[in-house]
Amino acid sequence: MANDKGRRRASGFPQGRTKDEGQMTIEELQGQIRRLNSKAGQMKMDLHDLAEGLPTDYTQLMDVAAATYEIYRQLDELKQHLKKLENAK
User: Fold this and answer.
1) Buried b (16+ CB within 10 A) or exposed e, 27-38
2) 3-state secondary structure of 8
3) Do the Cβ atoms of 32 and 12 come closer than 8 Å?
4) Which of 1, 15, 54, 88 could potentially form a cystine with 63 if both were Cys, beta carbons 3.0 to 4.6 Å apart?
């Protein structure tokens, strides 16, 4: 997880590139949030499992925690954008 070069974000778009949020429909955004929510839940469980096994694999802790943080940050951003779209209706 330390090397994200060429990886796709959980949103399905390459790192640093997303569909223009202004062009996204509410339904598309909801679908993206559902997919990201599923991935975030799995990452949270992975982080929990890693923490339970400490000190074994402690060297992976920062990478897994950073990836988990990033997916929840993206999820929060998408939810805020969805809320704005729904309020603009």
Assistant:
1) eebbebbeebbe
2) strand
3) yes
4) 1
